[in-house]
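INFO  loader      accepted 1 record
INFO  loader      residues=112
INFO  predictor   begin
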Amino acid sequence: MNASNWLNAIPPLILSVLVGIIGFFLKRTIGLVDRHETEISAIKDQYVTKEEMDCLQDDLKSGLGKLSEGIDALKDNYMRKDDFVRAIADVNRRQDRIFDVLLEMKGDKNRG
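INFO  predictor   done
INFO  writer      dumping tokens
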């Protein structure tokens, strides 16, 4: 082979290598774009918009307001367990005093 054949073969070889390099990077870039598109669509499916979040927060605030009103009504209409136990103990003490007075009036306490 002579030098002119080698010189004629170099431009197509360089062109093939350049096309291969460009094709590799183009394929990689397109793959990245496709992956980003699927990730963005997944984000769009999973997350809410600001308007939807504001609406949800308003619903929660109204629900919490109703719950706090219910708790206030419970505080006004019902007694705590500790208060109930104290009241019953006080009633029992008074009942014992009444029984003691009745027994003294009857005279049975002096015998015992």
